[in-house]
Every structure is written in structure tokens, then in C-alpha cells.
Amino acid sequence: MPRSQGEIGAAGGHQGDFMTTEPDDASLVRAAAQRGIPGQLAFETLVDRHQLWLVRLLTHLLGNQSDAEDVAQDAFVRAFLAIESCGDGSRFRGWLRVIARRLAFNHRRDSRARARYEEESGLPMSLAGETMTGQLGERDLLKRVLDELAYPYREIMVLRFVEELPLKEIAEVLEIGESAAKMRLTRARAEFQREYDKRGGRRGDTGRA
């Protein structure tokens, strides 16, 4: 039996409501795993959703935005090719972070890049949740000291104080035990504080782990 115009309008309204619902990462990962054009479109949505924070993280790890954008693109390509290994997709962000972290490590090892941060890398004015009220000179000093740390220390400091990840998640990203992550963070903080103090930084600005 043909539906009335009112019924059609009501159905169209429900369809419109459904279409405006933002799909979560898990739904997009499942769609991407199906490949084909729908899968590519689903993954493009994931890229749009996660590109900004990933480039920001990699900029802190690599020292400049140009390298960060290149490595981020590589990370997305590898993620798409291995999307089936992401499980149900509910932890896509963490899974992508692990891929990017490995690529960043390889990039620095291969290129031996020690470039300083570009101005737009934007180290936050807080570490471990404590707001910093220092002048711009203090901010620049923090960036310089962090940039000059040995890469394993710099990496864990960025994950803890820039990405603000809990210790358990840091251990997962670094693929080490939680106790080992805690020890590395303690050593990294001590090294950071030592170099910071040598350059005349204000004692206590680095907060607590």
C-alpha cells in the first residue's frame, strides 16, 4: 500500500536525523576494514578526526612541523594497510599513537635530526597539570631544554606532560612495563630539572610526575 505524504515526510525526517549522527571510531574502523570506496571514505573521516593531535604530538617528538606532517602521513598509510589489526576499533587513537611513535623513533634514528622546535610547535604552559605563569623567556627555555634531552627522555616527557597520558597508557605506547616507564620518567624528570636549573630556570616549574 502506498504511504501517505505525511508518512514519507516522517520517514525522511528520521533518516535525516540518522545521517547527522557522528560515527564513532569503532564504526569507522569496521567500515574501513571492508575496503573499497566506502572503506576509503570511512578512513578519510578518521584521518580528519585525528590528524591535528597526531601532527602536534609528532612535532614535539621530531622538532619541526614539516617532518611531523610527513611522519603523520606515513602513520596513517600504515594504519590503513593494517586496519584489521586494530581489533574492534574502540582504541584507534592509542593504536595509531603506537604506530606514530615507532615511526618517529625510526625517523630520528635514521636522519639523526636534532632540529629545534618551530615557533608553532607550541609547548603548553603547564606540566603535570600545574599552570605556569612565567614569561615568554621561561617558555622558550622549557622548549630548548626538552629539545636537547636524549630522545627516550624527551619522548616520555612529551607523552606525560604534553599529551598528559597516565603512566599505564605511556607504558603501552612505549611497549614497556609500567614500572620501567615510571623509572624512565623519573630519570627524565631529573635530567630535565638538572638542565633547566643550569640554564637559570625557576625551581619547581616542572611540576610532579
TrEMBL record:
Alphabetic keyword roster: DNA-binding, Sigma factor, Transcription, Transcription regulation
Superkingdom in the source lineage: Bacteria
Keyword NADP appears in the UniProt entry: no
GO BP annotations, alphabetical order: DNA-templated transcription initiation
SUPFAM superfamilies: Sigma2 domain of RNA polymerase sigma factors, Sigma3 and sigma4 domains of RNA polymerase sigma factors
Segments forming domain RNA polymerase sigma factor 70 region 4 type: 140-190
InterPro entries tied to this protein: RNA_pol_sigma-70-like, RNA_pol_sigma-70_dom, RNA_pol_sigma70_r2, RNA_pol_sigma70_r4_t2, RNA_pol_sigma_r2, RNA_pol_sigma_r3/r4-like, WH-like_DNA-bd_sf
Alphabetized NCBIfam families for the sequence: sigma70-ECF
Descriptive protein name: RNA polymerase sigma-70 factor, ECF subfamily
